[in-house]
Design brief:
Elements (H helix, E strand, L loop, with lengths): L1 E4 L5 H12 L4 E3 L2 E3 L6 E6 L2 E11 L2 E9 L6 H15 L4 E7 L3 H9 L3 E6 L2 H8 L16 E7 L10
Parallel strand pairs: 6-7
Antiparallel strand pairs: 1-4, 2-3, 4-5, 5-6, 7-9, 8-9
Bound molecules: coenzyme A.
The site of coenzyme A (COA) has 19 residues, from β6, α2, β7 and α3.
Length: 166
């Protein structure tokens, strides 16, 4: 697997992936509307095929992982892309990396906790508000679980340990 920097020739594909994963070409986090296709990121390639995508945003010394999308699950794609984003964040001097997922996303909750992230905030019923901004967000998500709550996770980059207890 090869990891390349997201380039302008990937933008249409990034928009398609965002539509599939998030029910629209935008992602909303903390009331900020992101267009992943316009963000910096990394693409995982197997030969000439794109098999994964990560986009991020660096702001005020923190790195937000806006999307992480492995087309081949349990193949190491997510780990490889997360490592690339962490490396970029460290190079920019970020103190930490954070992300938002939803209560149904058990695969992501497992994946990120196994990689040093901790849960810092749970916004109960936040998806109701998100649906007003993005009506395409599904009511039912992974494993048939209703998509209700936002879960914020973060990892300090200094020592890679969870440092906040909630
Ligand atoms: C969450 C997500 C990004 C994880 O990506 P992934 O590519 O499946 O993750 P990896 O394959 O790197 O790691 C998952 C497990 O597979 C294992 N694995 C990696 N390579 C493997 C291989 N070749 N064979 C078998 N298992 C393997 C890893 O060891 C890991 O297990 P661990 O957590 O116990 O260490 C992925 O499920 C996904 O894209 N989900 C949909 C989008 C999403 O929810 N994104 C996150 C929120 S923005």
């Amino acid at each position: 697997m090869l990891v390349t920097t997201l380039s302008s020739s990937d933008r249409t594909w990034v928009r398609e992936r965002t539509e599939l994963l998030f029910g629209g070409d935008t992602v909303v986090s903390r009331d900020v509307v992101h267009q992943p296709s316009e963000l910096p990121g990394f693409i995982a390639m197997e030969g000439s095929e794109r098999i994964g995508l990560a986009t991020f945003k660096i702001d005020d010394g923190r790195c937000e992982l806006v999307t992480l999308d492995a087309l081949c699950q349990w193949c190491g794609v997510g780990t490889t892309l997360l490592e690339a984003v962490e490396k970029a964040a460290r190079a920019e001097g970020c103190t930490d990396i954070w992300l938002i997922t939803t209560n149904d996303n058990l695969d992501a909750l497992r994946f990120f906790q196994r990689r040093g992230f901790c849960i810092t905030t749970v916004r109960v019923n936040a998806m109701e508000h998100i649906r007003r901004l993005k009506p395409g967000v599904p009511l039912v998500g992974s494993y048939g679980i209703p998509v209700n709550d936002e879960i914020e996770m973060e990892k300090a980059l200094a020592d890679g340990e969870c440092w906040k207890v909630v």
